[in-house]
Design brief:
Elements (H helix, E strand, L loop, with lengths): L51 H14 L1 H36 L5 H15 L1 H26 L6 H9 L2 H32 L1 H29 L3 H7 L4 H11 L4 H37 L6 H43 L1 H13 L17
Protein name: Glycerophosphoryl diester phosphodiesterase membrane domain-containing protein
Keywords: Membrane, Transmembrane, Transmembrane helix
Length: 374
C-alpha cells in the first residue's frame, strides 16, 4: 500500500529524509572570509583602476622594486647618450675653432661658415642615438611595469631582449613626434624671421605677435597631441601594434580621460624636475664657487672646465636616468589604468595571475583578441 508523504508548509526538513536531514540555516550575514575583500595585489599595483596617489607612488617604486633592471638600464642608456654627445660635439667644436684660428684672414668667413655647417651636421649622430636609446629605455620600462604588475621580476637581459623586438616601431614613433615638434618650431621661427627681415617696424611688431601667439598655439597643440598619443609606446610594445594602429587606439583609450591624463603627465614631470633641481642646484653652486676660490685668476681655466664637465656628468647622468625611468613608468601605468577603466583589464590580469599560479599555460593578458603575439 502506497502512502503519500505530506509536508507542512513551514517544515524545514522534508519528511522523506527523516532524522538524518539537516535543516537549512537562516541567513545571518556574511561569514568570515566571504565578505568584501580588497583587490589582489600580486606585484607593483593592486588589480583595480589606479588612483592618483597609487600611480605616483608606483612610478617611483619601479626603481626600488627592480633597481638593477630599471635604474641600471637608465644609467647605461643616459650615460651612452651624454658621453657620445659630449665627445662628438666637443671634438667637432674644438676642431672647428682650431680650423678658424689657423685660417688666413681673407678666408676666415668661409671657413667659419663651413665649420658651423659641420657642427650642425655632427649633431645628427647624438640626435639619432638619443632617439633610438630613448625608445629602447621606454620599451624596457613598459615591459618591466607590465610584468611587475603580474608579480614577475625579470632580469636586465630579459627586459632588453623583449624590448629589442619592438625597438624599431618605437624608434620610428619617437622620431616622428620629435620631427613634428621641430618642424612646428621651424615654421613659427621662419615666419617671425621673414616678417622682421622684410617688414620694417610693422614687420617687427607682426613678428613679435606671431612669435608669442604662434608659440602659445604650438605649445597647446603639442600638449593636446602628446596627451592623446601618450600611451602609444605601451601599445606598440605590449599589444604588438604598428605606429598608425597605436595612434588610433591611443586616441580611443584617452577619450573621456584627456584632462586626467594630461594632469598626471604634467604632475609627474613637475615632480621629477623639482627633484632634479633640488639635487643638481647645490652641486652647480659648489662647482661655481669652488672654481672661483681655487683659481680666481683663471690660470687653470682649461683644467677647471674639464673638472667641472666631469663632475657635472657624474651628477647629471643618474638624475637623467631616474627621471627617464619614472616618466616612462608613469606613461605605462596610465595605459594600464585606462584599460582597466574602459576594458576591464584588471579582471583579465587577476585571471592570469590565478591561472599561472596553478601551473596553467595562459596567453599574454595584455594582447587584445585579433592582435598577433610578439
Amino acid at each position: 500500500m502506497v502512502t503519500d508523504h505530506w509536508q507542512a508548509p513551514d517544515s524545514p526538513v522534508p519528511p522523506q529524509y527523516g532524522e538524518f536531514a539537516t535543516p537549512t540555516p537562516s541567513y545571518q550575514g556574511p561569514r568570515p572570509g566571504h565578505g568584501w575583500a580588497p583587490p589582489p595585489k600580486p606585484g607593483l599595483i593592486p588589480l583595480r583602476p589606479i588612483g592618483l596617489g597609487t600611480l605616483l607612488g608606483a612610478s617611483f617604486q619601479v626603481l626600488r622594486r627592480n633597481p638593477k633592471a630599471t635604474f641600471g638600464s637608465g644609467l647605461i642608456i643616459q650615460a651612452a647618450i651624454m658621453l657620445v654627445t659630449v665627445l662628438v660635439v666637443g671634438l667637432v667644436t674644438l676642431w672647428a675653432f682650431d680650423r678658424i684660428d689657423s685660417a688666413p684672414l681673407d678666408q676666415q668667413d668661409a671657413v667659419a661658415a663651413g665649420s658651423v655647417l659641420t657642427g650642425v651636421l655632427s649633431a645628427i649622430i647624438p640626435l639619432a642615438l638619443t632617439v633610438i636609446a630613448s625608445a629602447l629605455l621606454q620599451a624596457i620600462i613598459v615591459v618591466e611595469v607590465a610584468r611587475a604588475t603580474l608579480g614577475e621580476k625579470q632580469r636586465l637581459s630579459a627586459l632588453w631582449r623583449r624590448a629589442a623586438t619592438r625597438l624599431w616601431p618605437l624608434a620610428l614613433w619617437t622620431l616622428l613626434i620629435t620631427g613634428a615638434l621641430l618642424l612646428g618650431v621651424a615654421v613659427v621661427a621662419g615666419i617671425v624671421v621673414l616678417l622682421v627681415a622684410v617688414g620694417g617696424v610693422a614687420g617687427i611688431v607682426a613678428g613679435v605677435l606671431v612669435g608669442v601667439f604662434g608659440g602659445l598655439l604650438l605649445a597647446a597643440a603639442s600638449f593636446y597631441f602628446y596627451t592623446k598619443t601618450s600611451v602609444v609606446p605601451s601599445l606598440i610594445v605590449l599589444e604588438n601594434l604598428g605606429v598608425r594602429a597605436s595612434v588610433i587606439r591611443s586616441w580611443s583609450l584617452t577619450r573621456g580621460y584627456f584632462w586626467r591624463t594630461l594632469g598626471v603627465l604634467l604632475l609627474v614631470t613637475l615632480i621629477v624636475q623639482v627633484i632634479s633641481q633640488v639635487v643638481s642646484l647645490p652641486v652647480s653652486l659648489v662647482l661655481g664657487f669652488g672654481t672661483v676660490l681655487v683659481d680666481p685668476n683663471g690660470v687653470f681655466a682649461f683644467e677647471s672646465s674639464i673638472v667641472t664637465l666631469v663632475v657635472t656628468l657624474i651628477v647629471a647622468i643618474p638624475i637623467a636616468a631616474v627621471a627617464a625611468v619614472v616618466q616612462s613608468a608613469a606613461v605605462a601605468l596610465i595605459y594600464l589604468d585606462l584599460r582597466m577603466r574602459k576594458e576591464g583589464l584588471d579582471l583579465e590580469l587577476a585571471r592570469y595571475v590565478e591561472s599561472a599560479a596553478q601551473g596553467f599555460d595562459v596567453p599574454d593578458p595584455y594582447l587584445v583578441t585579433g592582435h598577433p603575439a610578439p
